[in-house]
Amino acid sequence: MTQMAISAPHVQLDPAELCYLIVDENRFDRTILTNSLMAFGARNTIETRDALSAIRLLANEDIHMVLVSDGLLNMNGIELTNRIRRGGGMANPEIPIIMISSNTDHTAVMKARDAGIHEFLAKPFSPESLYIRIHTTIFQPRSFIREDGYVGPDRRWLNKGGPDGKEQRKK
Prior knowledge:
Layout: E1 19-23, H1 27-39, E2 44-48, H2 51-60, E3 65-69, H3 77-86, E4 97-101, H4 106-115, E5 119-122, H5 127-139, E6 144-146, E7 151-153
Parallel strand pairs: 1-2, 1-3, 3-4, 4-5
Antiparallel strand pairs: 6-7
Helix pairs in contact: 1-5
């Protein structure tokens, strides 16, 4: 089954038409995510409570976006993201990933970003804030980077270029 990254600039999709993989060990949290997606018309969701099942689903289903919790069975959300991005054998290592977590300290957010997520959403969240993250991922795509130390969407939101001269560079 062939999957294409939806973060490509030429792709115009309705977020309601996507297939979402929800990966969260907590049944209540999965239900909240599903209901939030349904609030803007999404009807195609697949739920799982653990990372190993998520990997199998990504290999066998036509999934367009992953919504992953940081606390999972088998491996955490950061480890799952790393496996998707760098694990090899994944049908679509560029699939958009939104990390959802109640741990919003700077270190946790930077670890998620450095693992290669597209967006970070803090719990508790509103359906509107989830929709904004999904919409941003689809309609404000960032280049996908493949370097030795990082695989994922460009971590820079704005590319303003370098300083105008050496005297303006930070030391």
